[in-house]
Amino acid sequence: MNILVINCGSSSLKYQLIDMTNETVTAKGLCERIGIEGSNLVHQPAGKGKLRFEKPMPDHKVAIQMVLDALVDPEHGVVKSVDEISAVGHRVVHAGTNYSDAVVIDENVKEVIKICYDLAPLHNPANLMGIEACEAAMPGKPNVAVWDTAFGMSMDEKAYLYAIPYEYFAKYSVRRYGFHGTSHKFVSGEAIKSLNLDPEKAKVIVCHLGNGASVSASIGGKCVDTSMGLTPLEGLIMGTRSGDIDAGVVQYICNKEGKDINEVLNILNKKSGLLGMSDGLSSDSRDIMQAAAEGNPRAKATAEAFEYRVAKYIGAYTAAMNGVDAICFTAGIGENDKDVRKGICSYLGYLGIEIDDEANNVRGELRVISTADSKVKVMLLPTNEELAIARETYRLCK
Ligand code: ADP
Question: 224 Cβ partners below 8 Å, 6+ apart?
Answer without folding.
Answer: 154, 155, 156, 159, 217, 218, 317, 320, 321
